[in-house]
Amino acid sequence: MIKVPRGTEDVLPEKVELWHHIENKLHEIAKTYNYKEIRTPIFERTELFQRGVGDTTDIVQKEMYTFEDRGGRSLTLRPEGTASVVRSYVEHKMHGFPNQPVKLYYMGPYFRYERPQKGRMRQFTQFGIEALGSADPAIDAEVIAFAMDCYRSLGLQSLRLVINSLGDLESRKNHRQALMDHFTPYKDELCGDCQLRLEQNPLRILDCKRDREHPSMKAAPSILDYLNEESQLYFEELRSYLEKMDIAYDIDPTMVRGLDYYHHTVFEIMSDAEGFGAITTLSGGGRYNGLVQELGGPETPGIGFAFSIERLIMALKAEGIDLPLEDELDCYVVSMGDEAKKEAARVVYDLRRAGIRADKDYMDKKMKGQFKAADRYKAKFVLVLGEDELNEGKITVKNMQTGEQKMHSLEKVVFYLKEIMQGGRQHG
Ligand code: HAM
């Protein structure tokens, strides 16, 4: 038997309803925040991620699905969305668009060759946003508020917002030197990866899972002590916006994020729900002021976040949230006899064309079996068509909620049901 590749999953029909519900909600929220959807290719030139995400990141060093196409080009399945969006921003000269900042969102599959575990997949679905063109801390607050709203609007409560600042280029440079000075005496005690990181990107050491307990970690220099005045001011402004908007947050100076492009604001949203699992990060994002230039565009500030719907669904489960899903059928048409069977096909067709969710039997089931099927599909109405009804040009409509049963003319039944459905949908 051939199974799905490791780290991927099928979303079966009974689960897809939940996905639709979430996706619709996210499109809706994006509208309320005035962000427009962008769709970029699933694969990009490998160089984009090497330059965009950063050569020293885990993503680029170990996690990319990279392949050569028949023309000998190196391509990579996108591991994240920001680099692609920025590429598109530069390619389409969006800095010249009349509406600034350019506010974009995206949703789709992303790929990382990671060691699969709960909440960590090789193919996952990210929803993310990017706001390009503004260096106002108010937009950082908007992006964080947007991320929180995605979770809150679905009923999640056990959330913790953690923020930090990585400062501007100068602050980062000074901090980098301090980290090198601090960790160099312990070099031999650190893991192989961290020994490399010490030279290439010492900030990454703070993120290491293996060296987490090393005594040198606790005393590591905090970025917040290395922020220059401008960076400090930026961080303070962001905090005052969050406070104004009543968005609670914790500051964690050790949160550095796993991608290289960040400056100033970084943030993560964690789930505090019991039973969520070992990985508690739901969502991550931050500001990336140098990225547009790195990818060949004019100097442009940007900020965004992304999360996976898979982890969002884990959080819903952990908090025991059942979303109201619309998986019922409006009508199921039950028929008896050959003539009635043909007429039933026409009735179902007319119902559907009137926008009513309808189905009938295709398995030659007896009446009882057809009623059972209607029950399993949670049909609101069962329409019964036997030889007698057919001869009279009528059909019986049974309301499954009230048990009420009525005969209608075959000609008018669709019109009648459409009226009821429209009323029901409007009120429900
Ligand atoms: P990231 O922290 O690498 O950031 O990923 C963001 C989110 O994607 C994670 O918090 C998690 O919800 C989800 N995610 C990542 N990897 C996996 C995985 N293997 N399985 C399931 N879910 C996963 C970024 O991707 C940045 N592009 C975010 C950003 C946008 N920063 C600025 N703009």
From TrEMBL:
This protein's name: Histidine--tRNA ligase
The family this protein is said to belong to: Belongs to the class-II aminoacyl-tRNA synthetase family.
Residue ranges of domain Aminoacyl-transfer RNA synthetases class-II family profile in the record: 1-324
Pfam (any one): tRNA-synt_His
Keyword Nucleotide-binding assigned: yes
Enzyme class, first EC level, given as a word: ligase
Entry keywords, A to Z: Aminoacyl-tRNA synthetase, ATP-binding, Cytoplasm, Ligase, Nucleotide-binding, Protein biosynthesis
Keyword Translocase: no
Subunit organization: Homodimer.
One MF term in the entry's GO annotations: histidine-tRNA ligase activity
Gene Ontology terms: biological process: histidyl-tRNA aminoacylation
PANTHER family hit by this protein: HISTIDINE--TRNA LIGASE, MITOCHONDRIAL-RELATED, HISTIDYL-TRNA SYNTHETASE
Gene3D superfamilies to which the protein is assigned, alphabetical: Anticodon-binding domain, Bira Bifunctional Protein, Domain 2
Residues holding L-histidine: E80, G81, T82, R112, Q126, E130, R257, Y261, Y262
Any one Gene Ontology cellular component term annotated for this protein: cytoplasm
Catalysed reaction, written as an equation: tRNA(His) + L-histidine + ATP = L-histidyl-tRNA(His) + AMP + diphosphate + H(+)
EC number: 6.1.1.21
